[in-house]
């Protein structure tokens, strides 16, 4: 008997449904239900929330989310072999688990969810960053989600929460921290998974802010950070030259030394630069 529900242990579920992990689907399963319940608790108060889970696999985290009281879980899974195991969980929690069989990159889950919505997932590593960037760049803010509780390779998690001056600091940190609070809430060794990946993993908790931390046009901010970090070793006056003929004056205006490099610059300064650039472009002045 497992510790969080009356369903069979996950090893037994995996053996019975022949759910041998497939590398091409990024399958590294969590089999310890105490651990999945702990991850589910990091997602915050689930009682009144719908939870979107990507890649439930045999359902360890799904069971954690349901046991922790999620109002409803919508799980999107690409691997048809996992569906019978997930159907058993749905039967044990009547009306609280819906499963969509398909590719999370192709499916718009919103029509199946009722706010407030949280997202929780032990993500397949090959699509994790792409999904995160989508969730961080919706057409309107606030986004459909209140929080994202996501497992990543530790190196990716560190890029999401990185501060200026570190090697990990770059576009992903700026994107995540501009309109959300982002922190690492757990680190897991390879042994926590079956099969164990080569690297450590970490759970990142992102909480949506009501609006941007500092005002800036998203497209202009994105242009600046792309140019700045694509050539992160260069001085900003060189890497941003293509954005405006008088980029040095704009950098000065934003309080940024033209000789500084991207990784030294705080989010607030990038936002100030984005507003200065926008004002120049709007005014049509060279
Ligand atoms: N949540 C389970 C756990 O924690 O044990 C499984 C996590 S495993 C790292 C990733 C899961 O995502 C697998 O079940 C895999 O089949 C599924 N998956 C991979 N690519 C997917 C995609 N494009 N859309 C939906 N699910 C996907």
From TrEMBL:
<feature type="binding site">
    <location>
        <position position="28"/>
    </location>
    <ligand>
        <name>S-adenosyl-L-methionine</name>
    </ligand>
</feature>
<keyword id="KW-0963">Cytoplasm</keyword>
<feature type="binding site">
    <location>
        <position position="30"/>
    </location>
    <ligand>
        <name>S-adenosyl-L-methionine</name>
    </ligand>
</feature>
<dbReference type="InterPro" id="IPR001737">
    <property type="entry name" value="KsgA/Erm"/>
</dbReference>
<dbReference type="GO" id="GO:0052908">
    <property type="term" value="F:16S rRNA (adenine(1518)-N(6)/adenine(1519)-N(6))-dimethyltransferase activity"/>
</dbReference>
<feature type="binding site">
    <location>
        <position position="122"/>
    </location>
    <ligand>
        <name>S-adenosyl-L-methionine</name>
    </ligand>
</feature>
<keyword id="KW-0698">rRNA processing</keyword>
<dbReference type="InterPro" id="IPR020596">
    <property type="entry name" value="rRNA_Ade_Mease_Trfase_CS"/>
</dbReference>
<feature type="domain" description="Ribosomal RNA adenine methylase transferase N-terminal">
    <location>
        <begin position="35"/>
        <end position="210"/>
    </location>
</feature>
<comment type="function">
    <text>Specifically dimethylates two adjacent adenosines (A1518 and A1519) in the loop of a conserved hairpin near the 3'-end of 16S rRNA in the 30S particle. May play a critical role in biogenesis of 30S subunits.</text>
</comment>
<comment type="similarity">
    <text>Belongs to the class I-like SAM-binding methyltransferase superfamily. rRNA adenine N(6)-methyltransferase family. RsmA subfamily.</text>
</comment>
<feature type="binding site">
    <location>
        <position position="55"/>
    </location>
    <ligand>
        <name>S-adenosyl-L-methionine</name>
    </ligand>
</feature>
<dbReference type="Pfam" id="PF00398">
    <property type="entry name" value="RrnaAD"/>
</dbReference>
<keyword id="KW-0808">Transferase</keyword>
<keyword id="KW-0489">Methyltransferase</keyword>
<keyword id="KW-0694">RNA-binding</keyword>
<feature type="binding site">
    <location>
        <position position="103"/>
    </location>
    <ligand>
        <name>S-adenosyl-L-methionine</name>
    </ligand>
</feature>
<dbReference type="InterPro" id="IPR011530">
    <property type="entry name" value="rRNA_adenine_dimethylase"/>
</dbReference>
<keyword id="KW-0949">S-adenosyl-L-methionine</keyword>
<dbReference type="InterPro" id="IPR020598">
    <property type="entry name" value="rRNA_Ade_methylase_Trfase_N"/>
</dbReference>
<feature type="binding site">
    <location>
        <position position="77"/>
    </location>
    <ligand>
        <name>S-adenosyl-L-methionine</name>
    </ligand>
</feature>
<protein>
    <recommendedName>
        <fullName>Ribosomal RNA small subunit methyltransferase A</fullName>
        <ecNumber>2.1.1.182</ecNumber>
    </recommendedName>
</protein>
């Amino acid at each position: 008997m497992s510790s969080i529900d009356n369903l069979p242990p996950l090893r037994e579920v995996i053996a019975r449904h022949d759910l041998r992990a497939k590398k091409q689907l990024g399958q590294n399963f969590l089999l310890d239900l105490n651990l999945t319940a702990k991850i589910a608790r990091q997602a915050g108060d689930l009682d009144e929330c719908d939870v979107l889970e990507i890649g439930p696999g045999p359902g360890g985290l799904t069971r954690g989310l349901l046991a922790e009281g999620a109002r409803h879980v919508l799980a999107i899974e690409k691997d048809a072999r996992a569906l019978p195991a997930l159907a058993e969980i749905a039967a044990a929690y009547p009306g609280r688990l819906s499963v969509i069989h398909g590719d999370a990159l192709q499916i718009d889950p919103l029509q199946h969810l009722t706010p407030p919505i949280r997202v929780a997932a032990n993500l397949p590593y090959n699509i994790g960053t792409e999904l995160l960037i989508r969730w961080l760049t919706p057409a309107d803010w606030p986004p459909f989600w209140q929080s994202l509780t996501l497992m990543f390779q530790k190196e990716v998690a560190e890029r999401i929460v990185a501060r200026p001056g570190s090697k990990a600091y770059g576009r992903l940190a700026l994107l995540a921290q501009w309109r959300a609070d982002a922190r690492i809430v757990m680190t897991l060794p390879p042994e926590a998974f079956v099969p164990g990946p080569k690297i450590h993993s970490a759970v990142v908790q992102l909480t949506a802010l009501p609006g941007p931390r500092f005002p800036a046009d998203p497209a202009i901010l994105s242009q600046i950070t792309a140019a700045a970090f694509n050539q992160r070793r260069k001085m900003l006056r060189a890497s941003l030259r293509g954005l405006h003929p008088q980029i040095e004056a704009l950098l000065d205006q934003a309080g940024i030394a033209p000789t500084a490099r991207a990784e030294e610059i705080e989010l607030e300064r990038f936002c100030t630069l984005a507003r200065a650039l926008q004002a120049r472009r709007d005014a049509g002045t060279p």
